[in-house]
Design goal:
Layout: E1 2-6, H1 12-21, E2 25-29, H2 33-41, E3 45-46, H3 50-56, E4 59-62, H4 67-75, E5 89-92, H5 98-110, E6 114-117, E7 120-121, H6 123-129, E8 133-134, E9 137-138, H7 140-150, H8 166-194, H9 199-207, H10 218-222, H11 233-250, H12 255-269, H13 281-288
Parallel strand pairs: 1-2, 1-4, 2-3, 4-5, 5-6
Antiparallel strand pairs: 6-9, 7-8
Length: 301
Amino acid sequence: MDVGFIGLGNIGGPCAKHLLDAGHRVTVFDIDEAAAGRLASAGARSAESAAEVAAAAEAVMLSLPTPEASEAVMAGEGGVLAAGRPGLVVVDLSTNSVGTARSLSERCRQAGVDYIDCPVSGGAWAADRGDLALMPSGDEAAFDRVREVLACFGKDDTKWLGPSGTGTLIKLINNQVFLVATQVFGEGYLLAAKAGLDTGRFLDVLRASSAGMYMPLADMIVKRQWESSSYDLSLAEKDLRLALESAAEIGTPLPLTRAAHDVLARSVEAGLGTKFFLGAMETLEAEAGFTAPVPPPVDAP
């Protein structure tokens, strides 16, 4: 299939490469010319605009950092809809607000273009493996037309989830649960460390107890592994902000999520936005007046 790919970052770059490896003809565009160049070296055709990508493709994939970027790439000057035509399928892998997903779906419908909001989960690691969790919603017939394309970088058991916006809301809730739970563990670890507890024993007890299910990234927090980022703190802040905005539209308060978002927002304001999202620990530590030490290796004397 002739596939276009716009946005070649931590998620989009590996996904586009998987499409090439599967034998699809891929046209790419990114404002980062180096990112586009890497895909061109792997066999993709590099375009000069989003419209040029759309003109060459049967299906266009978007992987963009913000709703504003999705809006501009779709409906701005030189955007996808400038080359929109009946039969074109747009699959938006970005994490947007529910309102943005539904608005873009309606604009596409008016242009005769099929729009699928299909946010992803699993991060850069899953993108590299070609094993992303996909959350597609929109027109089911359009999803069926691109199902095999999505299988190049997504899980084999991907299912259509419902009308436009459904996948986006599920993704926002997924990130809401994941980000809030991870932050709660960070708070607990900071409390234990400042109280002078033996953090090794503390962690052993938590792992064996009901809190263990909330500790998938505990080792990275304890070892302060947030300088190298595959999911920037600024993006985590954006995702919780979008969850709050979408919840407000639906009329559902999210007090715990709002508190967690406030920590991320303060972290971004403090200049931590480019760190891995776990770097919000530095904000918690600054407010506690205490830095949690890295425990010695288990086999240390």
